[in-house]
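F.,

This is the one I mentioned.
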């Protein structure tokens, strides 16, 4: 019995060690669940936050023997060094080239046979790091995805959500609509994102930008794309 437990534990440990960081994957486009995308976002945000925190510490460490000019020069050099460190991370992980496709739930609410439109909603909320001291989390304005911040139990949280707007009315013929409803558990939105790190650390402050690129309504069972659109045209 002890040997069986040891062998099982070995496999568990081996599986944990071999799990690949998405930022180290050779594939430049990866499909993942919302929780996995949250982990990727947090790992990148942490690097920006560390740079912003280090710089803030520098701004409060002026020596009594340091002139104002010397202090300003040291801060300028520190800003440059921290920006270069973040850029080295961005380039080493090929973040500018990576695209992350994330699944959002889709609920087929009601079909209007006269207008041949299906109203659809999604309850998925993807947790991402909220705006914090010296780091701003942003998502460019668009008609599909929004970044919402909430205060819960005294803490700030941020979520990427699908906007509940009329743009999500799916124009579809009755036959296709009936087929989709019959297979509703397999119907989901797929949204492609990338991270814009071009202004990650400027002027001593960090910016973490999540860019939604494309959205599609897909039947995951039959691998059928019902509808798709570019978000940022």
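My design for it:
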């Amino acid at each position: 019995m002890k040997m069986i437990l040891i062998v099982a534990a070995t496999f568990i440990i081996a599986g944990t060690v071999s799990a690949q960081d998405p930022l180290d994957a050779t594939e430049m486009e990866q499909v993942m669940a919302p929780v996995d995308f949250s982990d990727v976002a947090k790992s990148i945000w942490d690097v920006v936050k560390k740079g912003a925190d280090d710089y803030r510490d520098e701004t409060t460490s002026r020596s009594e023997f340091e002139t104002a000019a010397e202090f300003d020069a040291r801060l300028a050099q520190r800003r440059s060094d921290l920006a270069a460190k973040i850029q080295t991370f961005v380039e080493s992980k090929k973040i500018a080239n990576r695209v992350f496709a994330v699944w959002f739930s889709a609920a087929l609410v009601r079909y209007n046979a006269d207008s041949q439109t299906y109203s659809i909603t999604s309850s998925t909320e993807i947790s991402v790091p909220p705006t914090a001291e010296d780091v701003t989390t942003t998502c460019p304005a668009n008609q599909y995805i929004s970044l919402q911040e909430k205060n819960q139990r005294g803490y700030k949280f941020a979520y990427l959500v699908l906007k509940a707007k009329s743009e999500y009315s799916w124009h579809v013929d009755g036959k296709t609509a009936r087929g989709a409803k019959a297979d509703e558990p397999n119907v989901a939105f797929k949204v492609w994102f990338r991270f814009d790190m071009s202004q990650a650390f400027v002027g001593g402050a960090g910016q973490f930008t999540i860019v939604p690129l494309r959205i599609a309504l897909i039947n995951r069972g039959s691998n059928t794309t019902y509808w798709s659109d570019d978000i940022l045209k």
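The two ends are 61 Å apart (CA to CA).

Talk soon.
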